[in-house]
Amino acid sequence: MISASIKSDFSWKCKKTWMTASYNTLWCLIGCAIGDFGTIAFFQFTETPWPPLAIFSLAIINGIITSVILETIILCRQMPLSDAIKTSLGMSLISMVSMEVSMNLVDFILVGEAKLVIWVIPIMLIAGFLTPLPYNYWRLKALGKSCH
């Protein structure tokens, strides 16, 4: 059974929706990448002996936190702080987690550990952008809800 709130005229061909979803996904990627890369870099440079899965798990959590903080800062220019915080916390967790997992999975598959290597960073970012993009498009087009 399809919910009455889902639009019946859904199409994957709307350029405007793809642009909006891409813009929103890019902002999310920036916020997530700051926390994710910062966490991996910390463990890499301090040579703290943690297993890759633990580092990636912490990187995902920190990526989501920095994404929420960045979004709150951006939204504070448009609305009161309390509303900005509520809106930021209401972002799509599915989108952020899929973004984070794909970035870290690419790092692990290509590098073999939780380590930032200059050539893998663009690949991680591309994977982090493309993975949640169709979901963000669908959520925006079918439900009228933006991830931001």
Layout of strands and helices, then pairs:
Elements: H1 15-46, H2 52-75, H3 81-89, H4 93-111, H5 120-130, H6 133-143
Helix pairs in contact: 1-2, 1-4, 1-6, 2-3, 2-4, 4-5
In short:
The chain has 148 residues and is mostly helical.
Question: Can you describe what's shown?
Answer:
This protein is an all-alpha fold. The protein has one domain (15-142). The chain has six helices and no strands. It has helices spanning 15-46, 52-75, 81-89, 93-111, 120-130, 133-143. Helix 1 crosses helix 4 (93-111).
Characteristics of this structure?
single chain; 148 residues; mainly alpha; 72% helix; globular
- End-to-end C-alpha gap: 27 Å
Q: How many DSSP-defined strands?
A: 0
Mean pLDDT: 90
Task: Profile the largest sheet.
Answer: none
Structural class: mainly alpha
Helix content: over 70%
Element pattern in H and E = HHHHHH
DSSP strand (E) fraction?
Answer: under 5%
Gyration radius, rounded: 17 Å
* Tally of helical segments: 6
Low-confidence stretches: none
Silhouette? globular
**What is the number of independent domains?**
1
